[in-house]
From TrEMBL:
Keywords: Oxidoreductase. SUPFAM superfamilies: FMN-binding split barrel. Residues 23-167 form the Flavin reductase like domain. One of its GO terms (molecular function) is FMN binding. InterPro entries: Flavin_Rdtase-like_dom, NADH-dep_flavin_reductase, Split_barrel_FMN-bd. One of its GO terms (biological process) is pyrimidine nucleobase catabolic process. This is Flavin reductase family protein.
Length: 172
């Protein structure tokens, strides 16, 4: 299958490129998930797969690669903190998606509930108890029941689209 728009558009040549090119065009909200590894070190990552699953009980899901540096922590812990990121957090989103050894360098976080890494200056955060881990190929769907949370200052949405962070209506 090829695209019909213009000659400088990427062409879909197989199922992997079809998947990657199509999902690059799906704007997604940006969140960050944090936990502690079995040795107590903070771990975390940027996620664009956060979704609500149910209001009663309050359940949410996120997806992650089981080859991720954060997987051993998520696989072995009972709780995570989920942070909703706003447009003022675009740098934080990039940090949490960057080199895993440097994600917690600096003062952008502090110990939060249950000693988990709480990212500062986010519009909202939730403490989630992991109630299910569902491996699918080299990935997993994680289901959490929300047990607590907090709100920060309001902010405009932060979206991820075409490999860039932006707020609706303008690129950052």
């Amino acid at each position: 299958m090829t695209q019909s728009s213009s000659d400088h558009e990427p062409h879909i040549v197989d199922e992997l490129s079809a998947f990657k090119l199509a999902f690059r065009r799906l704007a997604a909200g940006v969140s960050a998930v944090t936990a502690r590894d079995p040795d107590g070190r903070p771990v975390g990552f940027t996620a664009t797969s956060l979704a609500s699953l149910a209001a009663v009980p309050p359940l949410a899901t996120f997806n992650m690669a089981r080859v991720s540096s954060a997987w051993p922590a998520i696989e072995q812990t009972d709780h995570v903190l989920i942070h909703i990121l706003g447009s003022r957090n675009s740098g934080l989103a990039a940090t949490m998606a960057g080199d895993h050894d440097r994600r917690f360098d600096g003062d952008h976080w502090a110990p939060g509930p249950l000693g988990l890494p709480l990212l500062k200056d986010v519009p909202a955060w939730m403490l989630g108890r992991i109630v299910g881990r569902y491996p699918v190929h080299h990935n997993a769907v994680i289901v959490v029941q929300i047990e607590d949370g907090g709100l920060g200052a309001e902010d405009e949405a932060l979206l991820y689209h075409e490999r860039s962070y932006f707020r609706p209506g303008e690129r950052l």
